[in-house]
Amino acid sequence: MISRLIVKNAVDDFLASLEVDVAIAGSGPSGLVAAKYIAENNASVALFERKLSVGGGMWGGGMMFPKIVVQEDAISILEEFRIDYTEEEGMFVANSIESVAKLTAKAIDSGAKIFNCISVEDVIIRESGISGFVVNWSSVELAGLHVDPLAVRSRFCVDATGHPAEVCHIVQRKVGKLQTTSGEIEGEGSMWAEKSESLVVDNTREIYPNLYVTGMAANAVFGSPRMGPIFGGMLLSGKKVAELIIDRL
Ligand code: 48H
Question: Residue 207: phi, psi to the nearest 5?
């Protein structure tokens, strides 16, 4: 009975997410924030995460010291997610573990469905643009097994895969030119926190018809610097991508 309940309920969730309004690849801070704001607008959201755990690079804070720094303009997001913080020297400090836990809880409470251990390995392409993700078990990918994937249809897709910008790389390789100056992925630059925190919000855009990029992937695609363990830009980028998509739903 235990096994039947698990398999039946997991399959029901997966079936219900085979066609959604928005599919997100990657459950780091930008993906989780985007999922929360989109789902609370009554849109269906499926978020696929390769790893067993959600949270991406946020758990580790800075060099495994479990703290993150957030700048003032993202404090309203910490407050919306009820993440505690302290103010020091004009900056704000939060616990990275609490941050992941609360971003995740709010995304789920808003109705987003999170599927862990599933990797996005390709996109669905139609005349109108990107129309969904091609997904497979991460264990299949890691073992290098030859197992065909399944497809998830969505009106909009989001690349929230962090530094590697995996979905954008797939699109560049297989589909066509991206909406960057060169038409290609311009590559992440070296660390310059002050600059890159505002650039990550500017870079949060539609990068190919119906495909948006958010978080660290946005800076990787547009050739902007990295920023280290300051996370306000990730939160603001997740919120911005949600607003851009909500406007079109
Ligand atoms: C499914 C995938 C796939 C795939 C990857 O790296 P993340 O935390 O991403 P962001 O952009 O939300 O946050 C970036 C931040 O954590 C960071 O690294 C910063 C601020 N760095 C600054 C610096 O200077 O280093 O999360 C991305 C998630 C991960 O959990 C991956 O496992 C997952 O995406 N992922 N999931 N299918 N193809 N590729």
Answer: -110, -20
- Please provide the average confidence, as pLDDT, over all residues in the chain: 97
Cβ-in-10-Å burial (0-12, 13-18, 19+) of 64 comes to exposed
For the chain, give every domain's residue range. 20-248
Cα of 76 vs centre of ligand 1, distance in Å, is 22
Residues listed for the chain: 249
At 113, the pLDDT band (50, 70, 90 cuts) reads very high
Are 215 and 160 spatial neighbours (Cβ–Cβ below 8 Å)? yes
Give the integer Cα–Cα distance in Å for 213 and 106. 21
Counting from 1 in the atom list of ligand 1, the atom nearest the Cα of 135 is 37
Tokens of 44: 């269906």
Q: What is the pLDDT of residues 27-38, one digit of tens each?
A: 999 999 999 999
* Cβ proximity of 230 and 57 under 8 Å: no
Regarding the beta carbon of 201 and ligand 1, being less than 6 Å apart is answered: no
H/E element holding 122? strand 118-126
Q: Is 160 in the pocket of ligand 1 (CB under 6 A)?
A: yes
- Going by the DSSP 8-state scheme, the letter that residue 106 receives in this structure is H
Q: Which fold has domain 20-248?
A: FAD/NAD(P)-binding domain (3.50.50)
Q: What is the pLDDT of residues 78-105, one digit of tens each?
A: 999 999 999 999 999 999 999 999 999 9
What are the tens digits of pLDDT across the range 192-249? 999 999 999 999 999 999 999 999 999 999 999 999 999 999 999 999 999 999 999 9
The type of residue at 55 is: G
